[in-house]
Amino acid sequence: MSRGRSGGPPGVDDKTPAVPVPRGPLTPDEVAGLCDDVRALLRAGGAAGAVVCDVGGPGPPGLATVDLLARLELAARRSGGRIRLRGPDPALRALLGLVGLRLQVEGQVEQGEPAPGVEEAVEPGDAAR
After folding, report:
1. What Rg do the C-alpha atoms of the chain give, in angstroms?
2. Residue-wise pLDDT tens digits, 79-97
3. What pLDDT, on the 0 to 100 scale, is given for residue 11?
4. Among 35, 78, 83, 126, which has the minimal tally of Cβ within 10 Å of its Cβ?
5. How big is the CA angle at 48 (ends 50 and 102), to the nearest 5 degrees?
6. Residues 6+ apart with CB under 8 A from 2
7. H or E element: which one contains 105?
8. What is the pLDDT of residue 62?
9. Residue 113 carries which DSSP code?
10. What is the DSSP code string of 35-103?
11. Dihedral sign computed on CA atoms, order 7, 11, 17, 18
12. pLDDT < 50 positions in the chain
């Protein structure tokens, strides 16, 4: 793992090793193996409680990819973490939005978090933190 910083979320950068996510139909054993990989990475201290999944593979995304990502996210959450996508193409993002699966994307600011380098404004009369 690299300790260098990029524009990504805290604890994750473009050099963080990622779990490759194959496109297309997988056997139940292959899906279970990838879920086991995610759980093992989180137990080993995944970056900021997140496992990076590289989804930039060849070919158009389909429902098999969405199903796999949903299963990986569920395995991660049950282990106290999340998955974070690396390299999703617009078609995959649209498909995930269509089915209502909201996943973190590497380099994208999490909802409710300020963008990197942005400071929160302080109003007169605000209590010190």
Report:
1. 16
2. 999 999 999 999 999 999 9
3. 42
4. 126
5. 40
6. 13, 15, 16
7. strand 104-105
8. 87
9. S
10. HHHHHHHHHTT-GGGEEEEE---SS---HHHHHHHHHHHHHHHHTT-EEEEES--HHHHHHHHHHT---
11. negative
12. 1-12
